[in-house]
Design goal:
With about 260 residues, this protein is an alpha/beta fold. The chain has a domain at about 5-90 and about 165-255: P-loop containing nucleotide triphosphate hydrolases (Rossmann fold, 3-Layer(aba) Sandwich). It has eight helices and ten strands. It has helices at about 55-60, 100-110, 120-130, 150-160, 180-195, 205-210, 230-235, 240-255; strands spanning about 5-15, 30-40, 45-50, 70-75, 80, 85-90, 165-170, 200, 215-220, 225-230. The chain is globular. The relative contact order is 0.17.
């Protein structure tokens, strides 16, 4: 008997149709349409596709920042709750209150949820920082004094305070240099093994996704056009969009190879 998937997405759609003007109906514009997939516990799904394919819209719907216009999202067979999933954005520094200390920024979700008192939230933030490799005493430092890689760690720590089952990283590693990317990837792998986390990794970098994800899904024009194990998809891409992404990744790899 197969285990029940952690996440089930069924026929999800999000429509951004403009309002009617002069009595005429504007054409429908579906940012995502008919998106369905399942994801097991402790698995990582890579989500790739060209700009405007609907990747970030899907991420916002999965994080319940936006409500889909069709379909459903289930976590272990029940409706998804906002605390079940955390979204880590591309530029986490922009999501921090610049007047906060690091500890206050990490503890913010607990304050919003009114969990515990101030002392308990502060201690939870310090523990979360330690878990992602940041010194606990740095909780008192202003959040904007940290580097880009440290901001990523703080964002991960903040997400972990609510003990989510699913983390979505929306282009979260794209602004980091290669060394910082490798360090954050190693951290994510360690946290996944320790906390039974499930990830959706969104990126334009197919090579990066392949290193982290066991499965890759390709989106184009709001639809999921291909979804297979990573090695299989990269070795033998079927859809034209996937073929272009693989060719671009190979060309970039050839340019970066030492000569």
């Amino acid at each position: 008997m197969e285990a029940e998937p952690l996440l089930s997405v069924r026929n999800l759609g999000r429509n951004y149709t403009a309002r009617r003007r002069w009595g005429k109906s504007a054409p429908e514009r579906w940012a995502i349409r008919g998106v369905s997939f399942e994801l097991g516990r402790e698995q990582t799904l890579g989500l790739v596709g060209p700009s405007g394919a609907g990747k970030s819209t899907l991420a916002r719907c999965l994080a319940l920042f936006e409500m889909p216009d069709s379909g459903e999202i289930l976590l272990q067979g029940r409706p998804l709750r906002r605390c079940d999933v955390q979204l880590i954005p591309q530029q986490p520094a922009a999501s921090f209150n610049p007047r906060f200390t690091a500890g206050e920024a990490v503890a913010e979700p607990l304050a919003i949820q009114k969990r515990g008192n101030r002392a308990m939230r502060w201690e939870a933030a310090r523990r979360a920082m330690d878990r992602v490799g940041l010194p606990m005493h740095a909780a008192a430092r202003p959040v904007m004094e940290f580097s880009g890689g440290e901001h990523q760690r703080l964002a991960i720590a903040r997400a972990l305070t609510l003990e989510p089952a699913l983390l979505i990283l929306d282009e979260s590693l794209s602004a980091l240099d290669t060394s910082a990317q490798c360090q954050v990837l190693d951290l994510l792998r360690a946290l996944q093994a320790e906390l039974d986390l499930t990830y959706i990794l969104i990126s334009h970098d197919l090579a990066l996704v392949e290193r982290m994800a066991g499965e890759i899904a390709v989106m184009d024009e709001g639809r999921m056009v291909e979804h297979r194990p990573s090695w299989e998809l990269v070795a033998a891409p079927r859809h034209a969009t996937t073929q272009r992404l693989v060719q671009a990744a190979l060309a970039l790899s050839a340019e970066e190879a030492p000569r």
